[in-house]
Request: fold
Amino acid sequence: MARFVVVIFLFSLSSEPPAQVQPAPAPAPTAPPSELTINDLRGREYTGPRVETPRGLDGKPDLTGYWRPLREAGKPGGNLGKDEPNFVLPFSDLGRRALLYNQNHTVDPEAVCILGGIPRHNGSGLPFEILHTPKRLATLYFYNTHRWVSIDANLQHPPNPEPRYFGHAIAHWDDETLVIETVGLRDSARDKIWLDENGNPTSDQTRVTERWSRPDFHHLNLQMTVSDLKYYTRPFTFNRTWVHGDPGQGLVEYACNENNIDAAHIGPGAGAIGPDGNRGYGYQDLELPKDPPGPEHYGL
Amino acid sequence: MTVSFSRAVLAGIALVTAGVVVASCRSGRSNATEEGTTRSSAEILLGRPYDGPAEATPRGADGKPLLTGYWKLLHEDGKPDGNLGKDRRDFALPYTAKGKEVLALNHQTVDPEARCIITGIPRLLTSVLPFEILHTPKRLGTFHALSWHRWVWLDGGERDPEQDPRYLGNAIGRWEGDTLVIESSGFHDSAEGNVWLDDNANPISAQATVVERWTRPDYHHLNLELTYTDPPYYSEPIIYRRSFVHGAPGEQLTEFSCEWNTPWVVTHLEPGPGQIGPNGNRGFGPDNQIVPDLPLGAVDDSRGTGYWLYRKNKPKPSDLPQ
Reply:
């Protein structure tokens, strides 16, 4: 399955969507689609009447839902430098070395079913799901992973946090905006973690501030600031909007580690990054099959 | 090629593990030491009977009980965990002939959890480890140790006749009074070699149905009555009951990355669940503990593979020299 992970990845980033991808259909209470297509993964601008923001028992916006990302024309997906000049992040010297290390030594962590981490998932082209209760929130991701956020203005980060892929996330409300602060992340120089899908580096100094708002039922906005002065010369921002999925859509299980016989043979790095800031450069003309190749293609 | 890769992995694991042991000692990061205690994993992970004043069941906007919380098992002395036959005479399950065949097959299979394949339902519900629930109006998630989660629809939808087989099944919940009833069907079959019914390697078939009846009679208690029906492998339905107690404030699940699923794990582990004692328990480690040691990952606090939980039946690359 690891091979499929990588393939889907490139689909999500290429500018022209291929006809279909493989993942199992989302459960729908009525008339479920027989197959999930790329159009089910990608968000489309909502054009219906405005529906009020749902609210939780605490009166705050309820972020629960299945969220599909809106792509911006001319901007790369999966690249946290999408709003930077030439889509390139402001690397420090150490950051350039860490980037080189990632590209030459680190197999894409998601391709070998390791937790993708923060902020990488916020730059992903794939939908995600939120389950939100007043004190506790989980974000759930495509390859069967999740992260935890505790919501309480009185919480503080531990002084010496155990490094994690998703770090230590605590949140508070700034009026109608949920602010999630994350520290205690793993470092690309030691662990299999990337800042984003393009293989940019992230360090143990990284601090991620996410400001989430839900102005109406159908939209979810993120203003994210990443500060990592070990690998970058200044903090940078990443903004994105997601639209709510159709009724009955939700994530489903994904057995990332099932039969991952190819995991040992995947090369390091994200591959060439094109001038459009996208990974997968040079593959645009590749004719992808409608269905994934069967086991006969793998010499099984 | 395979051989040289395996060696590299062995060396890598040994190095990483050695490094982590040192780091853990220096920073005192392990779960047990972080709490500044030498409490056993059983004291930390198992629930203890609540003897404070009863507090009212929290309720949602629909007036129904909210199941959200961090839930620790009230282990029953003399009863095995990880065994769906817990409440039966001699802990014996009513296998059919076909069920016995597939049970034997499971004994030839490396534990799917050790391979970081999704641990399914009902196995997750037989675990001795705490779990967490997030309950929202239309969607409920149960989150389990080793980073597993499953979703339950509460939106009034009906079962999809075209549903895909899944390790977690396809779960739909509905209310009967104050009881949340979750029905799941559409499972993977143990005959495919990747899924067990419980920790003891009992078989599950694609025809299985699981009905969970959850109640929260007060703030601190959560009860489960589970009915498992699987005619191809079991001659009668199996009833399984458990009770959980709410964790202390601040207790919660944390990240775990099941990533030590190397070729070494798949090719070197002894297949099957290991010896199941007359107490019906597979047990953890050489001392047959009912609760695994902390940290669960045994590589570091938040990384590892389920294998390290259970077995010391073969040498591991991280073992110290004898």
Notes: The longest helix of chain A spans residues 93-105. DSSP finds three helices and nine strands in chain A. Residues 29 and 37 of chain A are 18 Å apart (CA to CA).
